[in-house]
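Q: Start with the shorter request: fold the first protein.
A: Done. Sequence, then structure:
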Amino acid sequence: AVLAAEEPLFALPDSGIAIAPQPRQQAPTLSADVQATIADAKRRIAEGDLDEAEVILRGLMLEDNGSAVLHTMIGSIAFQRGDTSSAAAELQQAIQLDPSAIEPRLILVRIALRMGKLSEACSIAVGLATQAPDNLRVLMVAAKAMMKAKRFNEATVFWRRVACLRPELTLPVIEEGRCQLKSRNYEAALAAADRVLAQEPHEPTALVIKSESLQRLKRMSELADVSIKLAAIDPAAAMAAVPALISTFHPEEAAKVIAVAQRSGEGHIETVMKAGLVRTLESRAKVADERGDKRASAAAWKAVLLIEPENQRAAARLRRLVNPFVAKARAHAE
């Protein structure tokens, strides 16, 4: 059903979906004894004792078959066992008994995702978000369903809503950054990563998103700085930027990333890539020598030593470049 213009709708860009909230219906009040028994069943489910939980719930069903809560819990148990057909039947029964119930629809979204019915999962999720636009669990399930369906722009809307409701959380902003990256909105992904890093400067996923965004935007100097910081936290992720730094003529920065990654425990550095980088740096040093640029030559040899501390040739060439400056400094001191 499509809502009339004056009815509230959780807006999604180009979704083509508009589901009206289900009419609210007063669920039957459960007695204190039944509520205590349901709590016991929930505890057993949490502990993984699904069989005993189902026995308890089936016993209650003999007394009261009109409880949406019971059908939802039995459907949840069936879903956890992988019996999606039985789970869906129980959950549909729960919705018939309580059309406004949220929990059975949340599980139906998960069932649809498990079965690869992405459009159905998204449709149910949007209906839930329309019905409960301030329910964090609903919004997060909807966002994840949209991401699974590769509907990243719509997922972004849900993550932003979560972020508005819980501004202290970084997770929704990180997930927004992922969505923007997948949508090739690199500036937006970078902005999301920066918002997270303003709160948590060393958040690994945000650094990865920022690194990938800068690489796509070809902002290599900034990429080098981020990659060096990331190398101390997630060396393997930082190494992903090294080929781009080398190919865009930033070998000294690439060497720094490798050096930090090695110190941080990334033992596997591709031998071919490392040897190629050393050759590139040696070539840069030679060119710098030919044009009399001692500073650039020293930077290149120093970069070689960062990734190959045992390289005697680089050490000798660097000493030859540095010694005159040292001697001059000593003379001035005297």
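Q: Next, the second protein, separately.
A: Sequence, then structure:
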Amino acid sequence: YQRFLKPLNNLARMVAPSKSIDETIDILLKSDGRKHSFYLEGLFKLFADIYGSEFQDWRMRMKLEVEDELGAYSDTISFQAFAQTKDTPPYALREMEKKKTSARERLKNIFLKKGWFLENGRIGPTFVELSTAIRTADWMDAEEERNKILKAIARELKEIQELNYNMDNLEEIHKLRRKLRWFLLYLQALDGFFTLTDDELVLREFVPLKGAKIAESPFSAVPVNPLVTDPAELPRHVFLAMSQYVEDLGAIKTVGEHLESIKDALLASRRFAPDREARQRNREALLRAEKIVGETLESVHDKGHAVMDSLERTQLVGELRRLVRNDR
């Protein structure tokens, strides 16, 4: 269970110097708090399939009460910062500021109400409850757990393998990226359960990624744990291919979200095209957002389709599933 306690303890240490709930929120955003909360959510997501309902309950609490809310507030900061570098009308920027303030207040209230943190910024009773649940769970022996982890990951990859995602829908692009990203996150959060090898027998077109920029990305790092004596193996270049697809989809998603955030800010202001009927006003807001961002929604969709076509052609997800399933 140490792999669960590691991100939990990192979060606790991170906020230890805090003197208020507001300072805690700032620390979490500036010190990789989202990464550690993601690790916890990912571990509970993966292990819920192995250990059952209590793990699923904690997974949903981590998702809905911590990660989703941290992410929503973080996004408002990023969207506003981007818009400020562009020719965004001041009235739209004011709407973005309102949304950011509202998201922060909501985050603070949920942290306090759900017991994750206290007014003085320190960890709350929910942290203690979660730590206790982890320590007292009925953990199975290492070999049995190892096999079940591999099977659970293979099942998730099978679901992704069908690639049934509509790239003309921004939320579907986000959904595909999130599904692929869980695989990367599992390899990091499992803390040495997987090791990367230099075997280059499969999917050789991705071998050059070993010398590419993606190989230096922190999202492409897989920890080595000397306490794990029998790690599962994956070819490094195949793992890097997944990381590259996640990065590419992330760049596409970010452009789409900037378009949507600026469009929504324009529409939220009564100063934008107040005499237009709703559909026309929405269309004009999108056109204005595209001009501000310098990209079109159509180009976002086209790039999404290109990634999807590449995934289908290379059959990367299916090959990863085969490698995970046949580790033994």
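Q: Describe the second briefly.
A: The first helix runs from residue 2 to 15. The beta strands are 194-197, 232-235.
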